[in-house]
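INFO batch 0412 | record 1 of 1 | parsing
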Amino acid sequence: PKNENNFHAVQAFRKYLSTEDEPPIKEVIASGAVPMLIKVLAADGNPALQYEASWALTNLASASERELGILLGHDLVGEFMKLLNSSHDELKEQALWGLGNIAGENPDCRDMLLQRGMVGCLLKILNEKVKLSILRIVAWCFSNLSRGKPEPPLNQVSVFIPYIARLLQVDDTEVLTDSCWALSYISDMGNEANQELLNNGCAEPLIKLLTHEDYHIQVPALRACGNIITGLDKHTQTMLNFGVLSQLSHLIGGKKKNLKKEALWTLSNIAAGTATQVTMLLQNRDILLNLRGCCKHPDVDVSREAVWTFSNIFSGAQIEQIDRL
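INFO prediction complete | emitting tokens
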């Protein structure tokens, strides 16, 4: 039967493109298969066939910019976006993977997806009851839509900050990791972006995640916290009010060198803050003891950051505070 032959042909392309070692992407595109796969993708009524086509096209979309340009010329983005409305979760997931790959390719692709309304599609999905596997891909898409230089327009990104704040409550490593990376990219976009993060309640969950058991969550959470703290004094104060000092003390007293170094950098920025902020730092005995230990750390990158933090403290402290120190 014709439909069965179509299925096996599309499935064969998908299998060719799913090989781990050098999938034949250029050969498949040169064969003229792309228009056929796009046509199959757009044909409702056979979700199994659409799924095979979307999987094959997602693999093709992970190729070079030149090959991706050919796919985009056939409006692959439009067809993937239509599939986000599918009642079949497998189709929806595969379309999300494809769009996420395109968003992560380069800033031009990212901005094109933002302009074509991908954010609205993602928010619509999150407003429904969805599986954990879909939440994971959506969080990854948010991360790719926030990443890259030049930065995306803040007005496009700020729309999904409240949704990322909700994702920080999901007890899943993948969701938390990609959500924290998204916030780390947004927090690097300046004071206005950081105000949006604070307004949407991102500070407290980010601070709690600094001592998460998974290192891959700690890294982006610390990056986001550090970026916020390096901004305006009022942003630093908000982070202090939510208890960031005790979490940073834990990190500089830990064994992970990268976390220790970045936490020290964050503390040095607090030490360069207002008199109130320096006082809060000096009142935390655990931090001071861990700072002293870091000054003797064998890695010069760590010891340098610790000494720099003390230097900033001495610059901003009162005479009586310096005597006590």
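INFO post-check: The chain has a mean pLDDT of 91.
INFO record closed
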